[in-house]
Amino acid sequence: MNLSLLSRRARLLAVSVAAVALLLAASCSNGDDDSSASSATTQATETIQPAETSPTTTTADDGDMADSDMDDGDMDDDAMADGDMADDAMIEGDMADDEMSDAMTESDDMAMLDPIGALAEVRTQDDGSLQVYSEIVISATPEQIWEVLTDFATMPEWSDTFQGLTGDLTDGGEAVATFLAEGQAFPFPHVLTWEEGRSFGWSDPLAFAPGIVDDHHYIIDRTDGTNTLFIQIDTLTGDDAGYPAAVLADQLVQGYAWFNQQLKTEVERRIAE
Fold this sequence. Notes:
This protein is an alpha+beta fold. The chain has helices at about 5-30, 35-50, 60-110, 140-150, 155-160, 245-270; strands spanning about 120-125, 130-140, 160-165, 175-180, 185-195, 200-205, 210-225, 230-240. Helix content is about 45%, strand content about 25%.
């Protein structure tokens, strides 16, 4: 039983005890002191009677009123007991809701991915940096995507933007990333971050816009066993007078979306062979 129910029961008992005490005082008073007895009886009646008496209410004697008050107390106890049961039921209901919420959360985490889902947009972060975010769902396992994503020897055959990496392909290794723009290849040296089977990228100042730090990553994210979410994300911190970050972000988001689509096509083509 919670504290609020205990408090209500205590108040009800106090009222009942006070009423009974007043009635006993009235019964035990000297018969000659009619005014005192009448006053006590009236006070007791006002204590336990409703504020407005129904026209059909019949006045009862003191004993009947005391019995009625005790019966009311029993009814109150029963009501409070019912309240306890209701409270217990509510607590059990809350526990059931929590379990359902947990189950729904787990279900959401394992929800089937839409195989045609794709997104590409530029987001402004709280610190003023620009985030070029893109994602696509590929109908393949993470292992199948990683195999194609890191097959840099054949990447120029199917990608019109990112041409691949050469160098030390390990975490902290120095490598050169080559990109194709308007038919011309542009190599950029980077220090890699590399997590085998899941992601690779770098975070360095841009060679052509040194005022901007380019934090660029290719990530194989969650999978439902049939489809896998691939994310390409780039955060541009700082700015450069010769090549503003906002202009660069608008150009990159289009290229990232196109690379993602070409990667999806190549992975699913190889699986279908």
